[in-house]
Amino acid sequence: MSGYREEGAEAGLTLGADGMLRLKWPRGAVITAADAERAMLRVNQLCGENRHPMLVDMATTADVSRGARAVFGRPCQASRIALLGSSPVDRVLANFFLGINAVPCPTKFFTSERDALAWLAVT
To answer: Could you tell me the strand order of the sheet in which 12-15 lies?
Structure first.
C-alpha cells in the first residue's frame, strides 16, 4: 500500500491488495483545483495502465471548489467511484458534483461503506 501527503488539503491515498483505491480527505478540507490535480495524478501513478474502483471518503469535507469539481470530472484510472459521506452536507456536495459535471466513469454517493464497497465490487 502507498500513501502521500501534499500541501493544501492533505489526502491519503492507498491501493489495497484487493485492487481497491481508497482516497480520504481530512476533516474540514476545502479541496482546491491544485489539491484535486495532485490527487488525480497520484491515482494515475498508483494505477499505471490498470483501472481500479475507488472509494472516496468525503465524510468530513467542508467544500469542493469549482476548479476541483472540473478536475474530478476528467477521466482518470478509476473504473468506478463511490463517494462516501455521512451528513446531509456531504449529500448536497455529492449531488451538486454529480448534477453539474459529466462524470468520467460510473459514480454514486453512499452513506454506508459496506454498500459502497459492494457497488464498487460489481464489474
So the answer is: 12-15, 21-24, 52-57, 78-84, 107-110
3-state secondary structure the chain: CCCCCCCCCCCEEEECCCCCEEEECCCCCEECHHHHHHHHHHHHHHHCCCCEEEEEECCCCCEECHHHHHHHCCCCCEEEEEEECCCHHHHHHHHHHHHHCCCCCCEEEECCHHHHHHHHHCC
Reported as a pLDDT band with limits 50, 70 and 90, residue 6 is: very low
**Is the Cβ–Cβ distance between 58 and 25 less than 8 Å?**
yes
Using CA atoms of 42, 44, 46, 47 in order, give the dihedral in degrees to the nearest 10: 160
pLDDT digits (tens, 9 = 90+) for 73-104: 888 999 999 999 887 777 777 776 666 667 78
44 Cβ contact list (under 8 Å, min separation 6): 76, 77
Taken in order 3, 61, 58, 47, is the CA torsion positive or negative?
negative
pLDDT of residue 100: 62
